Amino acid sequence: MNLQLHNNSFTGSIPPAIGNLTNLEYLNLAANDLSGSIPAAIGNVGFDGTVDHLQNLYLYQNGFSGTIPPEIGKLTELRELYLGVNQLTGNIPWQLGNLSNLQILNLQYNQLYGSIPLTFSNLTALDTFNVTGNCLTDFEPVNHVPNLIGDDAQVDTCYMPPRGLPWLMLLLE
User: Would you say the C-alpha torsion 148, 28, 109, 88 has a positive or negative sign?
Assistant: First the structure.
């Protein structure tokens, strides 16, 4: 089942009842004027009690603020996760490393900071990774990630310490 409500002028926040949509495979709320935090209940979307169904989650180009809910890491069947072009802050939750089927992860143009979680070594299906326009600072602990993220990796930092340069060189090889 698909729910596509993108490219409208919806305002307000996502209600916690979103978690009651248990058979969704595709949820697209992108390019609206939604705001507030992404509710923790988003981690229940597509889960009917026994099987995860949700494969695509698009929440990009809204006005979401706050942190990325770690509950998204429960959506183990996700193939595509787009949270870019919002006002999300904080660290990237390590729980996103549980999304072993993830092929596309787009977190671009938020206000995220910190490092890429070590658990991203589990993202062996990931082939598109975009964190451009954030303030990530430490890449050394994840110098193995470029080998896992395939051909399309877009990373931007506010400060990259000298020890991070070997990681960047791996991207260029």
Answer: negative
Alpha carbon distance 17, 45 (integer Å): 9
User: Could you list the residue range(s) of the whole structural domain that residue 120 is in?
Assistant: 2-172
Return d(Cα 127, Cα 160) in angstroms, integer.
23
Which residues are CB-contacts of 169 (< 8 A; sequence separation ≥ 6)? none
- Closest CA relative to residue 54, chosen from 121, 110, 99: 99
What global pTM score does this model have? 0.85
21-63 confidence digits (pLDDT tens): 999 999 999 999 999 999 999 999 999 988 999 999 999 999 9
Residue 67's CATH number = 3.80.10.10
